[in-house]
Amino acid sequence: MEMGFRWFGSNDDPIKLQQIKQIPGMTQVVGALFDVPVGEVWPKEKIASLKKEINDAGLKMDVIESVNIHDDIKIGKPSRDKYIENYKETIRNLSEYGVKVICYNFMPVFDWLRTDLQFDLPDGSNVMSFELDKLASDPQEMIDRVESNSKGYSLPGWEPERLSEIKRLFDAYKDVDEQKLTENLKYFLDAIIPVCEECDVRMAMHPDDPPMPLFGLPRIYKNREDMLKIEELHESKYNGFTICTGSLGENPDNDVPAIVREFVKKDRAPFIHTRNIKFTSKTDFHESAHLSSEGSLDMYEIMKAMHDSGFDGYVRPDHGRNIWGESDRPGYGLYDRALGATYLNGLWEAINKA
């Protein structure tokens, strides 16, 4: 298992690589190029520059999150072939610089959704939260609320230039149901997985977050049954999953440790986001510290499932609290994710020694 830390780059992240390097057991930076428009080829020179910056700090860059999928691919427009060819070229370019895993998602319009980005906890920290009855009926109102609470940071999956055309996007997706979205995913996977096999780069699809249909948009990676269907779309270990324990755990019917055991044993989960959440009702939750007792998920059982299944891939702490006066990008502060990484490494060591 290699521990990683998501980083948004020196131009848009107040966290320094030197600080990440000081987290015990940290070996990887999970990076991305946020200045390349979705659908365009990631240039080699930009990849090389990012890798050099990370390597110079004494860290590695084996995982990229995310090479976002252009909407024309998800919708199934004739223009998708152009963007798929660009995606193939990006895979080849990333492979040349040692990238082994690409985390991506296939969610229409919204990559993730929360109703509050600064939900106050009793300990004085704040987190992101989701309450179904606070979900705005108008998607534009939801976007405005998120942008006004983002503390001035760009948020992954909420690209302003894309969401500025929200009405056009919803119109474009109006005929895309779950079946059509699945067919479009298969078309995409059939095209790119041979390139992944050639380049030894594994695709790791991220779950829907939260794992339920919202605003009438289809969702196709919500649970174990969806994962089995996605596996069958293109049989290859390069067609894999990012198991996000928080996203899957947001549905209390999902047995997260069992999902981890099944798909790690099958070598279909090269990347795991390991985070906790706290339910406030069957549909509502807020993020929490990683510690089992702070949330509703048993992190010991999750880590034990990874260990017992022979997991040797990449893991990272995910959405943390803003603590100790920190005012960083919601969910992506330094301190609580550093505590989370240390806690997860402690669990791993204890399970190993036991």
From TrEMBL:
EC numbers on record: 4.2.1.8
Pathway where it operates: Carbohydrate metabolism; pentose and glucuronate interconversion
SUPFAM superfamilies xref list: Xylose isomerase-like
Keywords from the UniProt entry: Iron, Lyase, Manganese
Molecular function via GO: mannonate dehydratase activity
Enzymatic reactions: D-mannonate = 2-dehydro-3-deoxy-D-gluconate + H2O
Family statement: Belongs to the mannonate dehydratase family.
Name of the protein described by the UniProt record: Mannonate dehydratase
Organism: Companilactobacillus baiquanensis
